[in-house]
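[#protein-structures] MJ: dropping Neuroglobin here for a structure pass
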Amino acid sequence: MERPEPELIRQSWRAVSRSPLEHGTVLFARLFDLEPDLLPLFQYNCRQFSSPEDCLSSPEFLDHIRKVMFVIDTAVTNVEDLSSLEEYLAGLGKKHRAVGVKFSSFSTVGESLLYMLEKCLGPAFTPAMRAAWSQLYGAVVRAMSRGWDGE
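AK: finished. structure tokens for Neuroglobin:
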């Protein structure tokens, strides 16, 4: 597995990880803008959200945001040994597949992640940083894709 530039990843994540919920909300707001069809996948107690805003302010969804930011944090921590996360990420892929997430949606999640990093870091988010994050996210999605394979 090709390794992204660890220092660029860590350095840029430091700013984001100070307020994960705030930045995670930016990521998901962007995701719903780009792919509104994902909204109905989030249902708690069989309740459909009437709007992205409704979803983004629900306690259950905020919990999901926290989990997603934790997964990214784990990937950042293990950036030099992503293969140690393969099983965990494949399991995560399976879970997403089970609730009806299409594998293709993960490219939109990647775009939303880069958007959030850019919003958070501004001019400090350099092309080299963007490339490192694209590489890291690509590796995470490849591992998760095993949850869609062979079933």
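MJ: nice. The two ends are 24 Å apart (CA to CA).
AK: one more thing. Residues 5-146 form a domain with the Globin-like fold (CATH 1.10.490.10).
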